[in-house]
Amino acid sequence: TLNGLHRDNESAFAEEDSPSTTAAKSAHTTPQMQRARERDNELERERAKSHRELLERVAATEEQRSEREAELGVAVEGNARRRVRIRTLQNSILSSQGDLTNARSTAASVEGELAEYRARLRETGALRSSLAEQVASAEADAERAYTQLSMSQATLSQLTPSQDRVSEAEAGADAAEQELSQAESMISLCKGDVEAELAQAEAEVLGRVMPEIESLEASLSAVRSEVQTRMASSDEIAQRSELSDAQARRAEAEAARDKALRDAAAVTERDSKRGRRQSAAVNQNETDVTRASADVVAMSDDLIAAEHEVEEERERAEGVKAQAALAREKMKTLTAQLQSERERCGKELRESERELQRLERERDRAKARARESETDAKEGEQKALEATLLAENKARMHADLVQRSHGAAASLNEKRTQEDTLLRERCKPATASRDDLGALRDLEAQYAARAMEVEREMAQAEVSLSDTMRTEAAAWDRERQDMQRRIAEALASTRQTQGGAGHPF
């Protein structure tokens, strides 16, 4: 070391200046030589003293230089670590900006999907309004069918014994049933279309939005894990680079120190000229140290600027984090809106289902009333058929009575004609003889009595026939009134049943 070399030089100079050595020399020298030697010794001591001072200054300068190099190395290492962290933060900020851009694009796409979903909901609303119109038209058709059914019932109430009117009533009932079946099919088709459209819209929105939301959440979690991994890897790399740089700088410092020691040892062995050169080198070293100090100051300024940049990058990173948080909040808001839209659509679908169920119940009640009306129509038809049969029986009986009365009258006329002919035949020979005049008179008296008897029989037959006809007419009137009363009671019971159930539509 420098101190060891300094002690060796001092011991060598002390041996040269020792009294024994001086006495030995003075025994063989003259006083002039002794004075010259003393001057040489003094010069040598001064040279040794200046050399020791120079060595001390060199040692102090080396220590200061080593300290400043150590400080400079620490500052450089810190600056390198900060630069590594700055690059890591810049990379993470760039990746976060990319993730934010992706999140914005995903949010824009989700907003587009929501706009499309709203458009589909508006279309569904239009379809629902058209369905309501179709249902209203179906209700109007059902109302018309109910009116026609009521008209058919009124027609049945005023039914006469005619098969044509019964067939018209059956045709009206069939037409009402067909209109009811058409309304039922239209309602079922509208229900199927609405359910299919709503299910398709909800499936499309869920199929498009949910995977993007899940991928966005997965990408955000992957970005977080990647940023944490990069931070950990950058810290580890920085630590490794710091260790490797420190070891390299330590080796370089040791090599420089060994070289300085070797140079100092060489300087101590050279002459005074080399000492001057060493002092110049020391001055150069001081200049280098001054420059190094200026470099340290400049690097400290760079370090301060880098710290400001780090702060700015940190603020930017916080801004990016805030933007990412806003994007997440926006995604949560969009998810909540989507959930609310889904619940509203489900509610509207349930309301539509309830409305369709109500219409189906009304349709079933209308069918039941139609069946009841058909039953009443069949009963009316049966009663009309019975009335027709009764009228035919009465007409046949009346025809029989008329035929019998005509037959009796014809037989009476034939008898009268026969008796007149017989009387004329009997009167012809009586004219030939006046003797038979009394017999003729008797015969005329018999004829007159027989004619009177025939007239009485015809009067009695006419009286009995008129009595029979009056009796049959009264019975027919009673039966007709009974039939009308029964039909009126059936219609009244039908109206009461319909009025108790309420209006069908």
UniProtKB/TrEMBL annotation:
Q: Where is this region: Disordered?
A: 1-52, 156-179, 232-293, 338-382
| Compositionally biased spans, kind Low complexity | 169-179
Compositional bias per record (Basic and acidic residues), positions renumbered to this chain: 1-10, 35-52, 237-272, 340-382
> In what ranges is there compositional bias, type Polar residues?
19-33
Out of the domains of life, which is the source? Eukaryota
Q: What is this protein called?
A: Uncharacterized protein
Q: What is the lineage of its organism?
A: Eukaryota, Metamonada, Carpediemonas-like organisms, Kipferlia
